[in-house]
Specification:
heterotrimer; B: about 140 residues; mainly alpha; flat; C: about 260 residues; about 65% helix; elongated
């Protein structure tokens, strides 16, 4: 085990094995799922939760895009439209994007990638899930009872004094869910520090672990500050304490400082794990070590660090001091550097690599292109003068959707497809998967690229009506959104289908080098049949056998 | 299979705890005494915070065994306070520079927000309040749900 | 089973005990007690880091408003009873001492003594809360609860009572005063919440210590609840001067 190369895996082999004990079939009773401490089952529980919230958030998006099909506010009243975009933002940010990769893929894969039996604190992990659900319940109750209309940013004093929607209940829901985020991050930090397999030094870790570690740092250090911001808003609503109310001597911008101190790094919580997934996918499907591994690893930490210095760029027009604005603008340019380094390194890895275009690779390459566009437009926004012109227009909306949907969600879907064989023991069908990836890419660009244009031309965000000259862009955007929606539904179909009818997966169908592929698919509850020992770097493909290196994948043209 | 290093990692004796406790109480007394010093502006808050930091350091190093903990714990503690420092520094970069430009002077000059006088004016403000009849509370915006 | 070293990746870590020996208190995901202890301690420190950011956030807000409303905060601070806060600080420092002694005893495997000192810690904590409750009631009676009727006579006061009402703050400083007392209640309230959450956990651990659950090799919960309690103490060490001792030198205190 210590010195043998990774054994040859006949990838095309379609095993018809008698059922063996794995984490899924060890116990079918519902109680064994709801009281599990197995990180893999908890990951599945999270998968169900975030899929549900993605659908809810998507429905709100649907209402927004339907309304914006025509210039007049004819589908929804203005107040209702305000609730739609608010709740779309809240659900998508707090209940879908922030948990998505860390709680689903991270929970499943991190212990396996470090070679451990479970995370450092399995019961805390289960508690995290219940806390997440509890927060979701509070927020759903608030939405069903009439919703919130403050914008997901909860700016004061509207949210703390004047809004007559269910701000406090929603705030409680978000506060509670924040704890889930904190505890998950805590678990990952301790696991990565203390539970690595023998021989797994920091610079032998897969890049996904570096990304998760950096993400966890942000979760742990940033979330408490937004928590206190929310508490103060809640207290002001209930007791009129005056801390953010100018009429009582408070400063509304203080809320924005506390809010954005977390919410800017939060966007890195959303995108860093996707970057980690992309690193894994590119390494595996180019059969190469990621170019500049060490720099890419340290870039994850740099993004987490610098990301905390730039929050004021959300507040350039708020009344914040102009000098502070200049400082934040200057620092915001720096945060692009580590992200750009990653993009260059991925590209260098692809160059002359032995590329195989399986579905995860589609998503990874889509990520690189779309994230780059989102990131570059972020630089436009970092410059103070440009930002003042496009603030609160659709330019901003397009920018962050390029990062969050074009970037983070594509990384998430890529990861789901990449690790699907490991999680479920089944291969998904490549043809519908590629069609879906293609539709998502087309639909996404059709939805959001016109928004750059119409935003620059001056269409403001958060309004249910707009001047008629902007209609053509909005029609394109809504059409794109419909295609995007179809693209998102298709994976639900074929992934569920694969659970029963998909080809059974071997331990390492992609021929990857990281530890989670050295154990059967699906894994046994204790992950590894023998405790692994690591003797080579993360992406040492020389240890693989020739058939694996030649890259025979199910559904690929070069299938033997 | 008991390994000696597993049993005894804390080199803190009861005597050390009691000495630290005595120091903490002494510093508490000094804190209160310092509060009665005449007002030196920022120096007073500086002294108070310095004493509080000293007390916290004693608790962290000895009661929380950080003096004998590994480097990782030290890094975590320092990093945490560094992050807090970032929050304070950049936020105060905003507040301290607001008065420098008209576009953000509202915080310091707005009529809604009463500008504070100097320490000498406090008695004048109190005398003025005695001459005016007490005002009722402003009609509050509707309170929370 | 091949020859492998311990899972901790630290040089010189002790080897994994043979499979038949399962030390008491070792959770299934860990390989040995040392790894478990280090993980538990690091986990608690990470949690304390989140608490530092949480309290730090409210302290930032406090700092912003203290800079703005220096005089109002000073009046508010003088309206607090400094020597009650002094006693309370002393009580909490004592509870930190008893907690440290409890951990000391746990390290020596003395379950009963550990339990005794943990209970003493809890009792001191309850004394602290009691004194706090008395203070809150006092502030309520002085009409200084932040809100709509801050520093105003009661809504159902008679005309005579309204005329006789003694405002603690001049009109120009009332907003600042309201904000001061908001921070007083928020900061001490969140602090008290942390104590309320901690006390049952300490009692649970004390009960387990008395039962003999902990050994000299495994007493992580005692150590870690100690870290938590000391942190709560440190927060109060900062709150006391910030809320009670802003400026006691001025002779115009209204108290």
């Amino acid at each position: 085990m210590t010195t043998d190369p990774i054994p040859a895996q006949p990838i095309d082999f379609d095993p018809v094995e008698s059922p063996r004990d794995n984490y899924l079939n060890v116990n079918y009773r519902i109680k064994s799922w709801l009281l599990t401490v197995d990180h893999k089952r908890i990951a599945i529980l999270y998968l169900l939760g975030i899929t549900f919230f993605f659908v809810i958030g998507g429905i709100f998006a649907l209402m927004i895009r339907l309304e914006l099909l025509t210039p007049r506010g004819d589908l929804l009243k203005a107040d209702t439209y305000n609730k739609m975009f608010t709740m779309h933002g809240i659900v998508m940010v707090f209940f879908f994007l922030i948990p998505s990769i860390p709680a689903v893929i991270g929970n499943f894969i991190v212990p396996m990638m470090v070679g451990a039996r479970d995370l450092a604190f399995p019961r805390l992990n289960l508690a995290s899930w219940y806390i997440y659900i509890l927060g979701g319940v509070f927020t759903m109750i608030a939405m069903v009872s009439g919703g919130v209309d403050t914008g997901w940013t909860f700016y004061t004093p509207y949210s703390s004094v004047y809004s007559n929607t269910h701000v406090a209940l929603t705030a409680i829901g978000i506060f509670v869910t924040g704890f889930s985020s904190i505890l998950t991050g805590l678990n990952f930090i301790v696991t990565i520090h203390k539970m690595r397999a023998p021989g797994l030094t920091w610079f032998r870790m897969p890049l996904f672990l570096w990304s998760i570690y950096a993400t966890s740092l942000i979760m742990v250090l940033g979330t408490p500050v937004v928590a206190i911001a929310i508490v103060l808003v809640g207290l002001e609503r209930l007791f009129n304490i005056g801390v953010f109310n100018p009429a009582l001597g408070g400063d509304p911008i203080l809320f924005q400082h506390l809010f954005w101190f977390y919410s800017h790094p939060a966007v890195y919580i959303m995108v860093l794990p996707s970057m980690g997934v992309v690193s894994e996918i590119i390494a595996t499907f180019t059969r190469r070590r990621i170019f500049g591994y060490k720099i890419v690893a340290l870039s994850s930490l740099a993004i987490a660090l610098i990301g905390f210095f730039v929050w004021g760029h959300h507040m350039f027009v708020s009344g914040q001091s102009l000098y502070a604005g200049m400082i934040f603008s200057f620092l915001s340019f720096f945060v692009a550097i580590p992200s750009a380094i990653k993009v260059f390194n991925w590209t260098a890895t692809l160059y002359k690599g032995s590329i195989l275009l399986a579905t995860p690779m589609y998503y990874a390459m889509g990520f690189i292109g779309l994230f780059t566009m989102g990131g570059l437009t972020g630089l436009f926004l970092a410059s103070l003068g440009m930002d003042v012109h496009v603030t609160d227009t659709y330019f901003i909306v397009a920018h962050f959707h390029y990062i969050m949907v074009g970037g983070a969600i594509m990384g998430y879907l890529g990861g789901i497809h990449y690790w699907w064989p490991k999680i479920t023991g089944r291969m998904y069908a490549e043809v519908p998967a590629k069609i879906a990836a293609f539709l998502i890419f087309i639909g996404f660009n059709l939805t959001f690229f016109p928004q750059f244009l119409v935003g620059y031309l001056g269409m403001p965000r958060r309004y249910h009506e707009y001047p008629p000259e902007f209609q053509v862009y909005n029609v394109m955007s809504t059409a794109g959104a419909s295609i995007l929606a179809v693209g998102y539904v298709i994976p639900l179909v074929y992934l569920l289908w694969s659970l029963k009818y998909g080809r059974r997966a071997t331990a390492n169908p992609w021929g990857a080098t990281t530890l989670e592929w050295q154990t059967p698919s699906p894994p046994p509850t204790e992950n590894f049949l023998e405790p692994p020992v690591v003797t080579h770097e993360a992406y040492d493909f020389s240890a693989l056998s020739p058939e694996v290196l030649a890259g025979h994948f199910p559904g690929s043209a070069s299938k033997a | 299979m008991t390994v000696a290093s597993e049993v005894e990692e804390h080199h803190v004796s009861l005597r050390t705890y009691l000495i630290v406790f005595a120091l903490l109480i002494a510093l508490l007394v000094i804190t209160v005494a310092a509060a009665f010093l005449p007002h030196f502006g920022y120096l007073n808050i500086g002294i108070a915070l310095a004493i509080a930091v000293a007390k916290a350091t004693l608790v962290v190093l000895f009661f929380m065994h950080v003096k004998y903990s590994g480097r990782l714990v030290h890094v975590f503690i320092i990093a945490t306070f560094a992050w807090l420092g970032v929050l304070f520094t950049l936020t105060f970069a905003d507040y301290l520079s607001r008065s420098w430009l008209p576009s953000s002077r509202g915080w310091t000059e707005s009529g809604l927000v009463t500008p504070e006088g100097s320490w000498k004016n406090i008695e004048a403000a109190e005398r003025a309040a005695q001459h005016d009849p007490p005002t009722t509370a402003p009609a509050a915006p509707r309170s929370g749900e | 089973m091949p020859e492998i070293t311990a899972n901790t990746a630290l040089p010189g870590s002790p080897p994994i005990p043979p499979a038949h020996e399962h030390p008491r208190g070792l959770a299934h995901q860990f390989d040995d007690l040392r790894q478990q202890k280090e993980a538990a301690t690091l986990g608690m420190w990470t949690f304390l880091a989140t608490e530092v950011m949480f309290f730090g956030g409210v302290m930032l807000a406090y700092a912003v408003y203290r800079g703005k409303y220096a005089e109002a905060f000073a009046i508010g601070s003088r309206l607090e009873v400094w020597w009650i806060g002094f006693i309370n600080t002393g009580v909490l420092l004592c509870s930190s001492l008893t907690m440290a002694i409890a951990v000391y005893n746990a390290n020596r495997g003395l379950g009963s003594k550990t339990a005794r000192y943990l209970v003493m810690t809890v009792l001191l904590g309850i004394v602290f809360m009691g004194i706090k409750g008395y203070e809150y009631a006092h502030i309520y009676n002085e009409h200084l609860l932040p809100g709509n009727s801050f520093d105003q006579p009661s809504p159902d006061a008679t005309a005579g009572q309204i005329a006789d009402f003694e405002h603690k703050f001049p009109d120009s400083l009332r907003n600042g005063g309201r904000i001061f007392f908001s921070f007083y209640f928020i900061m001490t309230g969140i602090h008290a919440t942390h104590m309320i959450v901690g006390i049952p956990i300490i009692l649970l651990i004390a009960w387990k210590a008395k039962k003999g659950t902990y050994t000299t090799r495994y007493y992580d919960p005692v150590e870690n609840i100690g870290l938590y309690w000391h942190f709560v103490d440190i927060v109060w060490i900062f709150l006391y001067p910030l809320l009670y001792l802003i400026d006691l030198s001025s002779h115009t205190g209204m108290h």
